[in-house]
Amino acid sequence: MGYAPLNALKVFDAVFRHGTFYGAAKELSVTPSAISHQMRHLEEWLGIGLFERRGKQLKFDAHAISLAGALRLAFSDIDRACQEVRRKNKNQQLTVAVIPSVAICWLIPRLPLFRELEPKIDLKIIYAIFGHEINFEDVDIAIIYARDMPVVPKMHAVQILSGASAPVCSQSFMDRHPRLNDAGDVARFNLLHDTDTGGWRAWLGDDYPVKTGAAADIIFEDFNLLRAAVLAGQGIALCATSIIQDDLETGRLVKLSDRTINNEYNYFAVCRESLDGGPVSIFFEWLRHL
């Protein structure tokens, strides 16, 4: 009889998960007729039928359900073994997913420090988008923004930066408007917003300006756009002081108050649980001690 037809088993796994030939064909980038051919081949090899057609849907029998469960476990074991071999390859590229604000304002300016310490570790920096799930099959380490410590199976997580935000402006804006002493003063000038007006409404409370006689709102979809506007002297913004640390230390930006919002949010680094002294472990520990 020979070995089991692995390609046909892979096709059956996709068919079972989707419940249709069309869904399996779309996943595997083949035609439905190719799926049908592989299913007939598998049934001939097994010597039994695995399903009944009910229109476009398939009804699987007990043998098919049992086989599908065994295949899921087997394919998962194969995938884990392959991923482990890849991780042990010393030439493997280390992929780090970072939310754009942290990447541009905080991580990238510090990467030369890491390169000096570990010049032989290849890095790939990609964006992690807030609110979007990260595929940790393709990502070794992620830096994310969240209210609570992330809980991801078989992953480590550690807080690396505070998310607390305070009002800031450029030095040139401060020079033009020297009397910015309290919330009432701040509210009279151009308020720059990140995503929506909720941040300033929370920080100003009753001092939030009504539209009559007040400057129009300017809302930026991305923090990096907001930061660019603040640096250009266009107004005052609420920014996480931890990620604009360099701007504050060099005087490009000036903090106007110690009162903060978003104190419950933080930036976290997340990586695989198996820290073995390899590139993932080295970069993760470097992040922790910055």
What this model shows, in words?
One of its GO terms (molecular function) is DNA-binding transcription factor activity. It holds the Pfam family HTH_1. Residues 1-61 form the HTH lysR-type domain. Belongs to the LysR transcriptional regulatory family. This is Transcriptional regulator LysR. The mean pLDDT is 87. The termini are far apart. α5 links the parallel β3 (94-98) and β4 (123-127). The chain has helices spanning 6-18, 21-28, 32-46, 62-88, 100-117, 171-176, 183-187, 198-204, 223-231, 245-250, 279-288, and strands at residues 51-54, 57-60, 94-98, 123-127, 141-146, 155-162, 165-170, 191-194, 218-220, 236-240, 253-255, 266-272. With 290 residues, the chain is α/β, with parallel strands linked by helices. It is elongated and about 85 Å long. The strands form three sheets. A five-stranded mixed sheet has the order 4-3-5-12-6. The protein has three domains: 6-88, Winged helix-like DNA-binding domain superfamily/Winged helix DNA-binding domain (Arc Repressor Mutant, subunit A); 94-163 and 265-288, Periplasmic binding protein-like II (D-Maltodextrin-Binding Protein, domain 2); 165-255, Periplasmic binding protein-like II (D-Maltodextrin-Binding Protein, domain 2, 3-Layer(aba) Sandwich).
